[in-house]
């Protein structure tokens, strides 16, 4: 995507692009909660985090075994608690390692915008989406401080995406129900912006979101 297409909110004070997303990534078809659509993928827990959780969980379980064998009742009870904690870490590690196959990101379907970069997924009907616009947050007061790009989603009903998304979006504007973080995107931020703009402005084209035609459109 060319820099000249970048909206002002996603530029640095000197006019250059403030990076967001992965320019080499691609959208794809995916399914979330029984709905198929165009997935604009985001980053997720990597294999390193999953392996770390597995190792930590295994160490806790081994330590718990020794404590449970103790003749001291309180120590043995502590061992059972430690073992349970270890089992939870192991389960979290397995979940993280399997996460690579999940449809994580923003899913545009014929009926909904599904926000799924952090569980649980939230479905916002297209009929509720009034506007999408680029916004940014600055880390500090000086104009030279770094900023992070977001795509704000304004809705007809305030807070329709739930309190979790609303709490962040409200930092930009009261009419925003969600703010999509561009730093997490695995596609170029302009691909995200153009996909939202096209399907919001052309409701008759939304049926193709359940087909490969949507991928061809956003990358064509």
UniProtKB/TrEMBL annotation:
It comes from the Bacteria. Keywords: Membrane, Transmembrane, Transmembrane helix. The chain crosses the membrane at residues 47-69, 75-97. Residues 1-28 are annotated as: Disordered. This is Uncharacterized protein. It comes from Actinokineospora bangkokensis. The lineage of its organism: Bacteria, Bacillati, Actinomycetota, Actinomycetes, Pseudonocardiales.
């Amino acid at each position: 995507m060319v820099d000249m297409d970048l909206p002002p909110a996603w530029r640095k004070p000197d006019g250059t692009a403030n990076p967001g997303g992965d320019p080499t990534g691609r959208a794809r078809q995916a399914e979330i909660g029984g709905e198929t659509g165009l997935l604009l993928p985001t980053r997720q827990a990597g294999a390193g985090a999953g392996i770390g959780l597995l190792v930590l969980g295994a160490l806790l379980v081994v330590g718990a075994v020794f404590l449970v064998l103790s003749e001291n009742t309180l120590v043995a009870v502590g061992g059972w608690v430690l073992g349970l904690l270890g089992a939870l870490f192991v389960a979290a590690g397995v979940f993280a390692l399997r996460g690579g196959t999940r449809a994580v990101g923003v899913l545009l379907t014929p009926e909904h915008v599904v926000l799924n970069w952090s569980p649980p997924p939230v479905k916002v009907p297209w009929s509720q989406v009034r506007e999408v616009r680029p916004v940014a947050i600055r880390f500090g007061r000086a104009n030279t401080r770094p900023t992070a790009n977001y795509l704000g989603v304004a809705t007809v009903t305030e807070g329709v995406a739930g309190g979790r998304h609303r709490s962040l979006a409200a930092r930009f504007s009261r009419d925003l129900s969600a703010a999509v973080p561009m730093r997490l995107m695995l596609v170029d931020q302009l691909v995200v912006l153009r996909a939202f703009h096209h399907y919001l402005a052309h409701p008759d084209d939304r049926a193709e979101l359940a087909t490969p035609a949507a991928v061809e459109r956003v990358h064509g």
